[in-house]
Model the fold of this input.
Amino acid sequence: MSHIIKVAIVQHACGDDYAENLQRSIDGIKKAAATSADIVLLPELHTGPYFCVEAHTRHFERAEPIPGPTTDHFGTLAKELGIIIICSLFEKRSIGLYHNTAAVLDSNGEIAGRYRKMHIPDDPGYYEKFYFTPGDLGFKPIQTSIGKLGVLVCWDQWFPEAARLISLAGAEILFYPSAIGWDPSDDQAEKDRQCEAWITIQRAHAIANNLPVVSSNRIGHETDPSGATAGADFWGSSFICGQQGEILAQAPADAAAVIISDIDLERTDRIRRIWPYLRDRRIDAYQDILRRHIDDE
Amino acid sequence: MSHIIKVAIVQHACGDDYAENLQRSIDGIKKAAATSADIVLLPELHTGPYFCVEAHTRHFERAEPIPGPTTDHFGTLAKELGIIIICSLFEKRSIGLYHNTAAVLDSNGEIAGRYRKMHIPDDPGYYEKFYFTPGDLGFKPIQTSIGKLGVLVCWDQWFPEAARLISLAGAEILFYPSAIGWDPSDDQAEKDRQCEAWITIQRAHAIANNLPVVSSNRIGHETDPSGATAGADFWGSSFICGQQGEILAQAPADAAAVIISDIDLERTDRIRRIWPYLRDRRIDAYQDILRRHIDDE
Done:
C-alpha cells in the first residue's frame, strides 16, 4: 500500500522589491505545478530581504495581517493551480504585536491554517527578538486536503522538542521554511560545519519521528544596511528527505532551483514497525525536559 | 582557552568466549593508553555475543553484579594504565532483576558510577525486553576525574529526549556504547539508510546539545542460535564527533579498530555562544512531551 504525494520547494534570492520577489515565487510555483506537485514550500520571509539583519523600526512597515495581500496573492494562485502553498510572512497581528508566521493556502485557495514561530533567534545579524513575539499557538499540525502538515519555521529546526511535539500531535510531514546563511568572515571549515549541521539536525528529525522533512532556504548575498556586520551569504541547499532521513532531492547552495520529490506517506507506518520509538519513550522519566536547566542539587 | 582531552573507542568482534573478548578489549585499551588517551569506550555488552538475538533463559547465566568480575578486571586495568574505561555489561541487580548497564571505571580503578539503559528495544533479533528491566536511575551524568560524562546506551540514541535530559543535567560529553547491525536479508539500499540514520541522529545530538558524541559498536557476523533469523552483521562504524556534529574519527564497518581524537571541552562554551539553544527553549510549551500521543481532541 502506498500514498504518494509530490512535494516541491522553490528556492530563490529575495531582494528589496516585493513585486519582484513575488514573481520569483510565482514562477517557481508554476514550474512545480507543471509537474503535478501537490504542495510547494517557499523560503522563510520570501517577500523581502532578510531585514532582521538589523534592528530598525522602519521594517515594521513590511508586516501585514493574515489574511492580507500576500495570502490573497498566494491563495488565488493555489486555487488556480490546484496546489497547496506554504508561504512565510511577517504577520501584523495587532498594533504593536507581530509574529514570524507560516500560512498554509490549501488548493481551494482557502487559508488552511497558520503556524507562528515558537523559537525566536537573536544573534548578531539575526535580530528576530526585536520584531517577533514568540508564537502562542503551540506545535499543532495544520489539516489540509492532503493531510496534516507539521509546519515549523527556521530556528525551530534546532530544537528536537518542536519536531517531537508536532509529530506526536499527528503531523505527517515536517516543513521548515528557513533563511539561514554564512557569515562571510567565517573560514570555509566553519561554513562547512554550519551548513552540514543544519542539514544533519533536520534529517535527524525525520529519523527520530519517522516522517519526511521538507526544508527550504533562500540564496544570495544580502548586505547589512546598518554596516554592523558583513551581511549574510544565504546557503540555499534546500532539501527533501524521507522517513529514514535519506536525502530525496537537494538544491544547490548558490542557485535558484525548484526541487521536487515523490514521498510515500504510507511508508511512515512501515518504518514505525521496524523503528518503534513511540512504543518505548520513557514519558515517566522526561519531566525535567520542562526545566530550563538541571542544576547541581 | 582550551581544555583538551583525548578520547578513544575500541571496536572489535565479540564471540562466545568471555576470556577472549576480554583480551580483545584489553589489547585495544592498551593501544589507546599508549597514545595517552584519557578515556576509552567499549562496545555494548562486549564480553559476549549479542545474546538478545534470541530469548532464552540460559543467557541469564551471563549476568553479573556490579561490582563483579568484569568491573574488577577493568577497574584494575584502569588504575594500571591511568585511563577511564566505560564498559557495558549485563547487570544482575537481584535474583530476577537485570539491567543493561554501562559502568564507568575511573582512572584510580574505582567505579565512578553506572547508567542503566532507560529505553529498551524489542524487535526480531533484539529481544532486550525479555532480559532487561528498563533503567530506574534516570538520565544523570557520571562525575569522573575528567568531568561529567553523559553515558547512555544504544537504543537510547534514537531518543532526542535522552540526550537533552543528560545534557541539561550537566554532561560534558555523550557516550553511546552500541551493538547494532544489519539484517543480512535487507538489500544494500536499506542497509545504507539504516547505518547512515544511526550516524546522523547521534551527530544531531551533538548539534542539538553542543556536546561531543562518542559512539561505539561491535563488528562481525553473529548467528542466531534459535534459527529464527539470519543473525546480524554488526556494522562497526564507531565514531567520535565534535560539538557541531563534525566527524573527528571513524572506524571501518568491518574491521577491529582503535580510534582516537582530541576533543576540546571548552569549545562547548564557545559554540553555545553562537548557537544559544538553551536560551530559547520553550519550556512553557513542552508539556505534551510527557504524553504518549496527542490524540485528536
User: Anything to note?
Assistant: Chain A has a mean pLDDT of 97.
